[in-house]
Amino acid sequence: MPRGNSKKGTPARGQGVKRRRMADPKEKEQPIASVVNPRSSVVPFPEPSTKCISDTNSNSEPSMDSITEESARLFSDSLAGNTWKSYSRARSVLDSFQLLYTLDKVWPVPVEQLVQFIAYLSLKHFSPATVRLYISGISFSHKERNLEDTTKNFVVSKMLEGLHRNHPQRDNRAPVTLPLLRQITDALPSICSSTYESLLFKSSFILAFFAMLRVSEFTTKNKSDSSTEALQLSDVVVSDCQLKINIKKSKTDQRGYSTFIVINKYRDNASICPVLTLKKYLAARPAVSGCYHLFMHFDGSPLTRYQLSAMLRKSVNFCNIPNPNLLKSHSFRIGAATEASKRGINDEAIKKWGRWSSGAFERYIRIPW
């Protein structure tokens, strides 16, 4: 990214950030978005706040109860909350299976039981992904007990492979294309309860597309969710020609190293330009004490995943889009990956842009579309 004389940007709601002057977009066409290493000096961005743990040099030593409590906390923090829930569910389903067929509840779980368990889940029409997740949970339980992991048995592995072969999973979610993005955002004033609500959903739709956001990265689970995992006001800085986003934590960044995304003005169509739209939204966003989520309603409550999906469904139905059930909240991310591929952006850049850690992004590209 070219460097130049520094000048002040226009940060979101008073978040002062110094930046380097970006090259005039007329000099050279810029990509829609780019990803910046958080340690890079090209685009200065405030480091995410970290929790400091005091290091006392007192002579007192922690009690054994404190040590035990800390060891449990560190172990608990090794997995995301949703992963713990899934693994707990796996053990619960296994317990129910053993009780139903009067099988011994022993650890390590006998290979014969695991084989029967997988066959049972298959007959109950559990998806291959869910079965594999349950087996992973059982595997984890073996390891935390320091026992032999019987889930790694050859027969168990082959049964899981057979399950996937017999039930191939096809992702039939459709992409939100650029024309469709324009269409559904144009429909919002006709279906939203207020001008502000229309601007809120338009901004969230457009940013979800151009930043390839996962729904968990910019919405909350419910209205009372006070976690800071979804984008906060301080995570966004807007200038005249660019939008800078700090994604502090994501599915592929559980340790919170952060990813910085720079989105340029979209000059092909000003009505869906992420920079212009977000500037307009931020100007209208009320200052509500204690409410720091980027996307929030006028009363200060955060935008939830259910609300985003419901409004997308309303917009699609209002526009009479064919096969509306194929358009989900993840369709923005799918559409952006598809558009990037159509424009010839290389695979590595798409992976960084969408924060994929593997080649899984290839399944998101719908070409032809």
TrEMBL record:
<dbReference type="InterPro" id="IPR011010">
    <property type="entry name" value="DNA_brk_join_enz"/>
</dbReference>
<dbReference type="InterPro" id="IPR013762">
    <property type="entry name" value="Integrase-like_cat_sf"/>
</dbReference>
<protein>
    <recommendedName>
        <fullName>Tyr recombinase domain-containing protein</fullName>
    </recommendedName>
</protein>
<dbReference type="InterPro" id="IPR010998">
    <property type="entry name" value="Integrase_recombinase_N"/>
</dbReference>
<feature type="compositionally biased region" description="Polar residues">
    <location>
        <begin position="51"/>
        <end position="64"/>
    </location>
</feature>
<dbReference type="InterPro" id="IPR052925">
    <property type="entry name" value="Phage_Integrase-like_Recomb"/>
</dbReference>
<keyword id="KW-0238">DNA-binding</keyword>
<feature type="region of interest" description="Disordered">
    <location>
        <begin position="1"/>
        <end position="64"/>
    </location>
</feature>
<dbReference type="GO" id="GO:0015074">
    <property type="term" value="P:DNA integration"/>
</dbReference>
<keyword id="KW-0233">DNA recombination</keyword>
<dbReference type="GO" id="GO:0006310">
    <property type="term" value="P:DNA recombination"/>
</dbReference>
<dbReference type="GO" id="GO:0003677">
    <property type="term" value="F:DNA binding"/>
</dbReference>
